Amino acid sequence: MAPIQLGSDQEQTGCLSSFFSSCSRTPKQELNEKFVYSAIDPMEQLPAYQDIAQAMDKLDVKCDSELEHIIESAINDIDAELRSISLDLHAHPETGMKEVHAHQVLTDYLESKGFKVTRHAYGMETSFMAEYSRGSGRRVGVCAEYDGLPGLGQGCGHNLIAISGLATAIGIKAAIESGKASGKVVLFGTPAEELSIGKIRLVAKRAFQDNVDVCVMLHPTSYDHQYAAFIAVHDVHVEFFGSPSHASAAPWKGVNALDALVQTWNGISMMRQQLLPTDRVHGIVTDGGQAPNVIPEHTSAFFFIRTTKHTQAPRLQKKMEACFEAAALATGCKVKYTWREIGITKDVVQNQVMADTYAAHMEKYGIKFPSEEEQIRAGGGSTDMGNVSYEMPCIHPAYGIHTTASNHTIEFTAAAKTLAAHKDTIRATKCLAATGVEVLLNEEYYNRVQQQFKENLAQ
Ligand SMILES: [Zn+2]
């Protein structure tokens, strides 16, 4: 039996149409259409006011096409300016903590767009904060990165992350300015991501914790993952001290620091057999001795360890230290090892509620996302956004820029300046901005975001 029709020319308008269609009822007996209204007892057929109010509460704000239009227009209006900034940063790459040009370009631009800008924020020469607020309400943080890689330039596409940060902040600002949302947006300029320094220092100084309630950012890559997996990483410098001697005339008088290093290498190689499939240890020799005819008195190496959760790192650290100590004992050398002083780069906890909102917006553009399991399996890289994600709900989705090249390659550097990559960035950025605006608008949604954050941290 067909549901009652309110009229043959009824139009489907926005998402409310599906809500109201779900409220339509099937009559108990067949009725002639023209008698429909008189035949229904309104009190019996219509849902209770309370039910409607609850259902309205659950309606997604992304259905507010007017607000989406405001965000899109604000970002479209600055498209040419963003493209020019992106190409400028691509043509003038700067490595971590030396991003002087990017700092100037980005802060000048944000000031011209009406943000309150703090240059050199929190004691770093190339970090900044740009704020805009109106009325009371929640506070959305956005991160921009802009450092390049030595020898590779923008091999990780941080020129695109920089303009994505600008556009997300400007899109959210436009939503606030329209009067349809209130609260605050803060863009954090976070230097030296490739060195895993910027955000860790900002977290240590409570830059995020004291200023925003959630934090969002995007990263270009070769695929679209809303739950992009980023694992924890820590690093260690190890040195061995022996005694020099003539390598041929009196080798027995020497204590060979290179033997200690080789022993360490072998110890780690054997240790790998008993590590979890998700653990990683990799490194380089930074000093292997000075001359073949001198027993090396000093050697050094630099290792990274990675685990899926930062809480697992001490297990690996202990094993590494045992390899160092054992090699020193076996060769008679002294050993010194120094774990990174700033601390571990944590894994990224993606807030599923916000990640799904971002993905729902991207799906409207035809983007398909693999299953969560597939996305997690693809993890291998790390980012200092992880440390922010343990302080507040965060998302750091990855989006494809029409390349099959992996990040940190010459091919990816080339891809990061194409018009296709720019368009991909703008599209993903609109979806990120809409997610941020949802946090400002919808208290029930924000509560779910926070609830998810608590559940993730309890795991
Ligand atoms: Zn990167």
Automatic annotation (TrEMBL):
It comes from the Eukaryota. InterPro entries: Amidohydrolase, Bact_exopeptidase_dim_dom, Peptidase_M20/M20A_hydrolases, Peptidase_M20_dimer, Xaa-Arg_dipeptidase. Belongs to the peptidase M20A family. Residues 235-329 form the Peptidase M20 dimerisation domain. Pfam families: M20_dimer (PF07687). One of its GO terms (molecular function) is dipeptidase activity. This is Peptidase M20 domain-containing protein 2. It comes from Mucor saturninus.
